[in-house]
Design goal:
By secondary structure, this protein is of the alpha/beta class. The chain contains eight helices and twelve strands.
C-alpha cells in the first residue's frame, strides 16, 4: 500500500489511478489529519508527501515520521514545487528518500517509487553493490570498474559505497558529510567536492555516473553535470 498526501484533488486522483494501473495499491489524503488517522490503522510501504499542505505542512509531517520508531523506516518521496530548492534540501536532510518536482510525469513517478522500494528492501543485506560498470565488494574492500581494480582512499570508498547503495537517489551534502565524515565533522563542504572530483577521476569514464545536483548534493546514475 502506498499513501499519497496531496491537497490537489486532480493530482492526487491521477497518482492513485496511475499506481493502480501498474499494480500498486494506493490511498490518497488531502491533509495531515486524514493521513495520521489512516496511518494509525495501516502501515504503508511508501509515502508520497506533498510539501505545501493545508494545516500541517509536509516537512513537519516528515520530521514526525522519521523521529518515531514505528514509522522511521517507511520510505518517503517528497513532491515539491519546481525550483523549491530550499524545501528539497530540508526534506532530504530530514530523512526523505527522494523527491519529484511538479509538474512531473506519472511514469517518472512510478520509476522513482520502484527505485526507492528496491533500494530500501535491499538495505543492510547486500555485500556487493554494482551499478553499471562499477562494482564494490564490502567483504573484500575492493572496487572494480570494467573488471579492473581501482585503488581508493577510505573516505573515497565510503563515499562511493553510499552512492552505490542509493542509485538514482539524491544524497544531500549534509547527509554525505554526516555519514562519511561523522557528525563531529566541522569542515567546509568543499572537502566533499574535492573527494567527489578525485573519485570521478579514479573511476575513469564511469566517474561520469556521479551526477551533481546543484544546490542539493550528488547522486549516482546518469550523465554527470558539471
Amino acid at each position: 500500500m502506498i499513501f499519497c498526501v496531496e491537497d490537489d484533488t486532480n493530482i492526487r486522483e491521477l497518482v492513485i489511478y496511475t499506481l493502480g494501473t501498474t499494480g500498486m495499491k494506493a490511498c490518497g489524503f488531502e491533509d495531515g489529519a486524514a493521513f495520521w488517522k489512516a496511518l494509525a490503522e495501516d502501515t504503508p510501504e511508501l509515502i508520497l508527501l506533498d510539501i505545501m499542505l493545508p494545516g500541517e505542512d509536509g516537512i513537519s509531517i516528515l520530521k514526525k515520521l522519521k523521529t518515531s520508531s514505528k514509522t522511521k523506516d517507511i520510505p518517503v518521496i517528497m513532491m515539491t514545487a519546481k525550483g523549491a530548492e530550499y524545501d528539497v534540501v530540508k526534506g532530504l536532510d530530514a530523512g526523505a528518500d527522494d523527491y519529484v518536482a511538479k509538474p512531473f510525469g506519472m511514469m517518472e513517478l512510478v520509476s522513482r517509487i520502484k527505485a526507492v522500494l528496491r533500494r530500501t528492501k535491499a538495505d543492510g543485506k547486500a555485500e556487493v553493490y554494482q551499478v553499471g560498470s562499477i562494482r564494490l565488494d564490502l567483504k573484500k574492500h575492493e572496487v572494480l570498474v570494467d573488471g579492473s581494480t581501482v585503488i581508493l582512499t577510505l573516505k573515497e570508498f565510503e563515499l562511493l559505497k553510499r552512492l552505490l547503495q542509493n542509485p538514482d537517489i539524491v544524497l544531500t551534502r549534509n547527509r554525505l558529510l554526516e555519514e562519511v565524515w561523522g557528525y563531529e565533522f566541522e569542515g567546509e563542504t568543499r572537502t566533499l567536492d574535492v573527494h567527489v572530483r578525485s573519485l570521478r577521476q579514479k573511476l575513469g569514464s564511469a566517474g561520469e555516473m556521479i551526477q551533481t545536483v546543484r544546490g542539493v548534493g550528488y547522486r549516482l546514475g546518469g550523465t554527470h553535470e558539471s
